[in-house]
Amino acid sequence: MEDSDGRTDYIGPLEDPRPSLAADTTAAVDILVALWTRTARTGTPQLSALQLHALHSVRTAPGLNLGALADAIGTAPSAASRLCDRLEAAGMIRREPSPANRRTIGLTLTRRGQDALDAVSARRERLLGEVLDRMPADTRGQLLTGLRAFATASCAADLDERHRS
User: Taking the model in full, what pTM does it have?
Assistant: First the structure.
C-alpha cells in the first residue's frame, strides 16, 4: 500500500510467523532420535533400531510369541522371524515352547540380550546427562514436566486408538 509520500508500507503476514509447537517439537525430537540411534550403533554390540525395539519388546513381555512381536515392532511376521533368527544367533534371545500352550513358541531375553540393553541404556543416560548438564537447571525441570505430560497424553492416545480399532 502506498502512502501520500510515495512510500510503500509493508503489511506482514496475517498468520503468526513463529514456528508451530509441533514443528519445534519435531525438530527437537529429530535431534534426540539422532542421539538415541547413535548410542545403539556405537559401542558393543551394535544394534539396529529394529533389533533394539525387538529386544525391548521381549524384555517387557517375556514369552511374547512371534506374531505379537511382529505387531509390537510394526513388521510382518516373516520379517520378525528373520530378525529373531539373527538375535538368536547372536545369543540375545531364546525361543522356547510356552508353558501355557506347548504349540506356541515364546521369546525370552538371554543374559547377553539383557547386557546389550543395559549397555545401550547406560550409553544413552551418559549422553543425555551431558546434554542436560548444558541446560539451565530450571529448564531441565520444565523439560521433565513436559515429557511426563507428553507420555501421559501419548498413552491416552494409544488407548483411544485401540478402542477405535
Answer: 0.71
CA–CA distance, 133 with 131 (Å, rounded to integer): 5
Distance CA 104, CA 97 (A): 6
Quote the CA–CA distance of 128 and 135 in Å, as a whole number.
11
Buried b (16+ CB within 10 A) or exposed e, 6-44: eeeeeeeeeeeeeeeeeeeeeeeeeeeeeebeebbeeee
Collapsed DSSP state (helix, strand, coil) of residue 94: strand
Hey, is 163 helix, strand or coil?
helix
Instruction: Tell me the per-residue pLDDT of 110-165, one tens digit each, with 9 for 90 and over.
Output: 999 999 999 999 999 999 899 999 999 999 999 999 999 988 988 876 655 655 55
Which pairing describes strands 64-65 and 105-109: parallel, antiparallel, or unpaired? antiparallel
Q: What contacts 24+ positions apart, CB below 8 Å, involve 127-130?
A: 127/35, 127/38, 127/39, 128/35
First-to-last alpha carbon distance for the chain, in angstroms, is 54
